[in-house]
């Protein structure tokens, strides 16, 4: 679901609003109802008035009752009367004009009093005979709901303010908690902690803020990887440059002292060319690694590209056999002939360089669904299993001494360990991938790990390249 945070906030606000109105209505009704009843002490006072009036009437007569009623009237400053069931008053009392037409019966002291009526109700305490009734208009001091106004203000203003503040605080925490984690990770990353990540401390959730944190982590991962790679690349480059620079210094000394002048000049040209190739390859690798470009502007025949590269390689390595197996035609679209050509050239030359003289390198091209599969197999000593992934890292060489012994082409490019690293980035830039594995002859019972024990019955390295066709191109038969 898109906009999960939006829907979550909408649901939270909607439910919170409904709960707010429900709480206000319930609390208002409950509070007003509880405030609409007479206090227990006032109820007992009214019942005591009625019982005492009944007792005086039965024992001392109507005149004594009239005196008692006058005292209560003066004390409570209210109307009261004693009537029979025919609404006839006695004991020197009379019915109020406003009650004469509509008065039926009094209200029990235990009944609810309507707080919204301005006039006080008439309360009734019946005598034992149920034919005589003590009536008294509720004294003002006994009227309930004295705090009704303050209660209504609290329920209608203070309560919504508190609840809305609580809801706002919860929304704030819900939104700001991941943002604070992201801010903390950003500050740590900016201060040099390249391992800082936002999702590590993020609460479990799945919304836009989580996506933002994941995007930050991906950005941080790529940025830190680029920084580490650049640092490593710079360190390796500076290390690789020391040797040719030292040789250049020696050659300059020979020229200045006129010792083997021609040989020294030849060495200067060789070392300058070596440094130029090293710097160019390093810059190309850094560009591919940093920019991650998508090279997809060329349509060409992959078979023709392989054949041209192999012809050049045969010329450079005449003492090795280069066997090529391809169809007549293999069209590839939306790729880069330059990048792919450089990658294949590096891989094939690397295979020839590590193949002994009078041995062979096999290059095959086959089609598999929407991909072309290119394999380059040599007959060298192979690579330790633990290093099969590392050979695609810059300036990595399984045996740095191996490049300088027993091979007459030590001056060729990729002697710095950049060839396969460049090839991997270039193939990735055209949407492909590359991998390597060791190969043994059929019937060879020795393990691929035999090189670890010093055995030499290896039959070389096989590099496999998968390239997307980007079209329905088929092999021509």
UniProtKB/TrEMBL annotation:
Keywords: ATP-binding, Cell membrane, Kinase, Membrane, Nucleotide-binding, Phosphoprotein, Transferase, Transmembrane, Transmembrane helix. The chain crosses the membrane at residues 6-27, 147-172. InterPro entries: 2C_sensor_his_kinase, HAMP_dom, HATPase_C_sf, HATPase_dom, His_kinase_dom, HisK_dim/P_dom, HisK_dim/P_sf, HK_sensor. Its main location: membrane. GO terms for molecular function: ATP binding; phosphorelay sensor kinase activity. Residues 173-228 form the HAMP domain. The keyword Glycosyltransferase does not apply. It is found in: Cell membrane. SMART domains: HAMP (SM00304), HATPase_c (SM00387), HisKA (SM00388). GO terms for cellular component: plasma membrane. Its EC number is 2.7.13.3. It is a multi-pass membrane protein. It catalyses: ATP + protein L-histidine = ADP + protein N-phospho-L-histidine. Residues 236-471 form the Histidine kinase domain. It comes from the Bacteria. PROSITE patterns: HAMP, HIS_KIN. PANTHER family: SENSOR PROTEIN CREC, SENSOR PROTEIN RSTB. This is histidine kinase. It comes from Alteromonas portus.
